[in-house]
Every structure is written in structure tokens, then in C-alpha cells.
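G., the chain you wanted modeled:
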Amino acid sequence: MKPKGLLIAVVLLAVLVGLTWWSNKKQAAASKSPTDSSTKLLSIADDQFQEIRIKKLTGETIRLRRENGKWQITEPSPLPADQDTVGSLVSSLSSLNADKVVEDKATDLKPYGLDAPTLDVTVTKKDGKTDELLIGDDTPTGSGSYAKLNSGAKVVTIASYTKSSIDKKPDDLRDKRLIVFDSDKLTRVELQAKGQTIEFGKNGQNEWQILKPRPLRADGGQVDTFIGKLKDAKMDLSSPVADADKKFAAAPKVATATVTDASGTQTLEVHRDKDKNTYAKGSAAAGVYKVASDLADGLDKGIDDFRNKKLFDFGFSDPSKVELKTATYTKTGDKWMSGAKTMDNGSVQTLIDKLRDLAATKFLEKGGGSEVFSATVTSNSGKRVEKVTITKLDAQYFAQRENEPSIYELDSKAVDDLTKAASDVKEAAPEKKK
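Predicted structure as C-alpha cells:
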């Protein structure tokens, strides 16, 4: 090869090596982790947030302030805030990272929409210091938005979901509950529906009971479901209703519920029109609001809906003693005994299961007939003793708990299954000698 040709080849090789080095360096820079310390925007401990101001390009301003550990909306108008929703907003701002750096020292913010930001978010901390975040236009791909701190010149991008978690309206942040109470500290619950007033309270074993119109056993699950409906009663702000107060007044009343806890008494009143549109007003929010129709369904209940249909209250607390007319079974350790006889655990357990499942088909004012079966069950370490007597008149079966006036009608098959289980209890098979 001639010297001149060799020189040209060496120069071309050098150019090629340089281009390869430059290309690799550019790719390495582009693949730099978006969450390293250089792209951290905000780092504020959650408990240091004192105030959040969100100013929008539309001119709307939302201001949240923490007082006595609780967030409140103070602007555009004073409203109680949803603590969980504001908590999520605080979490989004407390540790905010950029996806990537677009420009380290931007002199012109207009290309990014940061000269007139879509969102201008100011966080005031407990020490009085502030951090201001500006969020501008969406990126060309729509997967993020441009952002910067007002105190710096670095322009970055943040994920679109991060912007969404910050871009909130007052209705998103307000507490939508119509009645506010602590379920664990209720001392009184009252329901006026179907022409009746039902009052609930708890007995010494912390179980719900019906106190009015007369003392009755309550189905704790049904009472808890009713209380859950009250706790979840929230205004539906997805589609504003004109003249909601007039529509509320014109619609028939379904129910009024009153709850009392350590903080006081609150009331919720629910109306529903012929088209199933449901409106409510509650002590926790001024005005009338449209609500989910299932709220009315949950409150449109009569006393029988809350009565305990089970004849025995021992539930899944296995008894220690079962007394029938013909035999008495006592639990000793892990064995069931009848006097000195060891009984077959499986057959005794079947009897207990049938007693546990024994339930009324409906409630009656009177029963009658002759006795066909009775059982006394001791449970809860001897603290609960329940006796049930079953009678038969013609083809009807009735049951009554000792010292209670309520009459329960029973399904004939349930009684047949119970009496069969009682007759099938047998002694344990002799242990095989080793």
C-alpha cells in the first residue's frame, strides 16, 4: 500500500473510533437513571407539611391547611377535607422525583409552558419555609409534563400520573361524608323507618341488642351492616343536581338515622322519589345532596330485619356442656363425656352444629302445642347458659328461649335434622390396644 493511501486509512479509522465513542457516550447519558439524586425535586417529611396552595392556569386557587393534625380546605371556601385524599396528595409531594432532566439551566421557559404554568404548587412547612413547584405543558408523547422548582433553572419531566395526583379540584379534596362518627365508640343508634322507631344498644358482652320498641335480641351482623351504610353515606358530586333541596322535600322520606358517640349526636335523613333518585342531608355537611340509591335500600328496614333469627347465641364459641332431656354431655379436655362414658366427638359435634344453625323462618306473636325437644347449652366459660324449648301444634313447630317472650317459627326439616342428630350421638369406639 502506498504511504498516501495508508495515511488516509488511518485518518478514517480515527474518525470512526471518535464517532463510536461519541455515540456511546450519548447513549449512556440518555440511559441515566431518572431517579438519582440530581433529579430529586422535593423531599419533605409528611409531618412537616403545614399548608398547600394549588394555583391553576384558570385562576382557581385551592388552599389546604393543617390544624390540630387535621387538614381543612380554606380556599376557595372553608370545607372539611377528606384526610385520606389529602394524605395521598401530601405523599405525592413529599418525595417527588423527576423522570429526566431536559435542560440544566433553562433561560426560556415558554417552550415548556412554564412561563405560565398549568399548576403552581406552594408547600409551606412548619418552620415557615416554602417550596414552589411549577408544572407546565405535557410532553409531546403525553406520558409526562415539564416541571421545575421556582427557585431553580433546571427543567425536568415528571410522569403524567404524578401530575394527576397533584391536579385536584375542591370536590376531589373535600370530605364527602354526610354523617361522621366513630363506629367503635357508639353509645346509641336509632332508626326511624317503615313507621317504627328502633333503638340499638350494646349489652354487657358488647353485643348489639334492640332496646326499642321493646327489648329483643339483635342480629349483630345486620346492625353492623346498617351502621356501615351510615358511615359510607357520601354526597355524589359527579353530576351536580339543580334544586336538590326542592327535590328532597318533594320525595317521600325513607328513613332518619341518629347516632351518638363521644363527640355528640348526628342525624342523617334520606328521601327517594319514584324514579329511585335518592337525596340526603346530614349533620356533617350543610345542604342536600344526591346519594347512591343503595343507601336508601340499606335504611329502609323494619324491626324484623334486625332481629336475631338464631335460637342460640353461642356462635362459634364451642359449648362446654349440652343438656338434653335424655342425656347430658360435658367437655373434658378434648373429649365429650356423658357421665363416665366417653362419647364420639364427631357425633356430638354434629349435634352442636345443628343447635348452632337452628334459626327461625319468621317471628310470631304466639305459639302453642306440646313439647317435642329441649336443649340447654353452656358456653363462654360457663358465663352463657341458653335453654330452648321446641313445641309442635298440628304441623307447625315453635321455639322459645327461656325467660324471653319471643316466639320463633321453625322449619320442620330443621327440627327433624336436630332430633336425628340428638338420637345419633354415640359412645366413642374402644381404643385399640397397641
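The mean pLDDT is 90.

Shout if anything looks off.
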